[in-house]
Predict the structure.
Amino acid sequence: MKTMHMPKMDNQNILISLLFIFSASLALSKSAVNVVMTLTYVVALFYIIRSRDYRKTITSNMGQPLVLPLILYLAVAIVGIVYTETINDGLGILNKTAGLFLVYFMTSVLINTDHDEKERAQTADNLVLVFIAGIFILDVIGLLTYLGFVADRKFSLPVYPMHVHHIWFANLNAVGIYAAASFLLFPDIPQDRRKRSLLIIFILFAIASVLLSISRTSWFGMIATGIVLAYLYTGKKRIFFPNRSHRGLQLPLGILFYSLCP
């Protein structure tokens, strides 16, 4: 897809900065996430109304790959409100689904407005690293909580730092492990020994946090996703699909693994 490019201006720098704040706050505060996301959309809307060039840049980058699938997913949640037994449950599911779409749309569109492809990739990587850093801070607080240095829950399970629900705590760490492992297995970051070492340390802390959270869903999700990552990394498809008759299982198994991930 061709995109319209423009020199990087102050408004773009401000919006990218808000994305970094959003990424850092994901692991630390749900309220902060909602506030920062709302602020980002308001600021972006202000720049779109104010600047015709920026409006063209934004609109030309709205055709992201997952926009249509996520809109269809959102539409199912909207229709589901009509058939739900409890309206509050239906609205809760709609809220989560809408949040997923808004986060993806905001991040993908704003990153893609940068005219430099290499810089876009670097911005995306840095956003994920900031997200991992936020989880690491939460993990350190969780470890201090478990050891009795913070709060009054020494050696108490499940671990949940800063009144964060233990399942949410586990899910954050599981996603962080996926991201850190992907950095180590696929991109160029392994060439940087310092970043590689920090990512490995984070993974060790994150695994300990998931185990101490006693979230069996996260445990199973990590195992399932670990199998998929190993499959993608090795590329040895015959281990899983030795003949043509087994290849038809690839799609449903992929959907199953995805649905079980936290």
Summary: The two ends are 32 Å apart (CA to CA). Residues 1-9, 237-262 have pLDDT under 50 and may be disordered.
